Amino acid sequence: MSLFDSLVKHGMPLVPRPIVGRVARRYVAGETMDDAVETLRAMNDEGAMGTVDVLGEEVRDRAKAEGAVVQYLALLDRIEAEGVDANVSIKPTMLGLKIDEELCTAHIRTIVDRAAELGNFVRIDMEDHTCTDATLRMYRRVHEAHPKAVGVVLQAYMHRTTADINDLAPLRPNIRICKGIYREPRAIAWHDFSTVRENFIYNMEKLLAHGAYVGIATHDSHLVWAGMSAVDRLGLDRDRYEFQMLLGVDPDLRKIILSEGHRLRVYVPFGRDWYPYSMRRLRENPTVARHVMRAMLPFSRST
Q1: On the CB side of 218, how many CA atoms lie within 13 Å of its CA?
Q2: pLDDT over 90 at 288, yes or no
Q3: Position 273 confidence tier, pLDDT thresholds 50, 70, 90
């Protein structure tokens, strides 16, 4: 790792909030629901679908978790009223998982019940490994009542992912498969880049072959190609899968996927908790992070 790369990795928390805010505009729709709807319309006009996330996580206050439920119910109603092509994504720790699993399950069920009434859909996001077992338990419980209205996420860098797919396969689940973003210990997660890629492809193909609906979530063009190759080889209809990308990441690749006739969904986050989300995006994307650091440190332009 170069001196500058090390500075980028360890220096991001020192970046002033206003500078992060300018960069965040690329990755976050804004602070309000109106901002999210405007962004969704732009994505729909481009030919993409959306999934909307109210930013926030690691909630340990019941009132705040209950407030998040109210926000999501209002968001589902707004999506219906506006007629935009979008569903919602939720984080269990925002809905009270770190307070009580039963409480969180009840909150998720309330949101999924409303989505089902509206003919919409809820994606339960996957967080770090301390949440995995509980998240899959909650998914199974809510899936029993609304199998078409709820899905979950599996992360290709986790050693356990193939076993989780085997366990979930009888449900014919709706699964987003992604590489994984949290810093997990080597004992439970693959760290080698090529191994994570291979595990992504293996598990994506396994899901598709088992009849799951798969959200192929990646900005890695090699994995996009692998996804296109797999659905062609299996002769799958467009309603059996979709590609997924984050707002603000590689819009050129987004256009390529759409131009090839594939369905694509863009993850559209909004809310006042944009700062921690944006910092995580910057840590994941060294290219963008370098631009931010160069804006602060004139000497870095020569590196």
Answers
A1: 23
A2: no
A3: confident
pLDDT computed for residue 26 by the predictor:
75
DSSP notation for 90-119: E-GGGGTTTT-HHHHHHHHHHHHHHHHHTT
* Active-site residue flag, 290: no
User: In this predicted model, what pLDDT tens digit does every residue of 56-104 receive, in sequence order?
Assistant: 888 999 999 999 999 999 999 999 999 999 999 999 999 999 999 999 9
Instruction: Check if the beta carbon of residue 106 is closer than 8 Å to that of residue 127.
Output: no
Question: What integer pLDDT is reported at residue 10 of this predicted model?
Answer: 55
Those residues whose C-beta lies under 8 Å from the C-beta of residue 155, and which sit 6 or more positions away, are 126, 161, 177, 178, 179, 180, 189
Q: CA-CA distance, 265 to 151, in Å (whole number)?
A: 14
Q: Which residues contact 68 (CB under 8 A, 6 or more apart)?
A: 54, 56, 59, 94, 95, 107
What pLDDT, in 10s, does the model give residues 102-131? 999 999 999 999 999 999 999 999 999 999
What are the counts of helices (DSSP H) followed by strands (DSSP E) for the chain? 12, 8
Residues 125, 164, 197, 281: which is the catalytic one? 125
What pTM did the predictor assign?
Answer: 0.87
Helix (H) or strand (E) holding 163: helix 161-168
Catalytic residue at 176? Answer: yes
- 265 contacts 48 by C-beta, under 8 angstroms: yes
The amino acid sitting at 116 is: A
Q: Out of 114, 123, 176, 281, which one is annotated catalytic?
A: 176
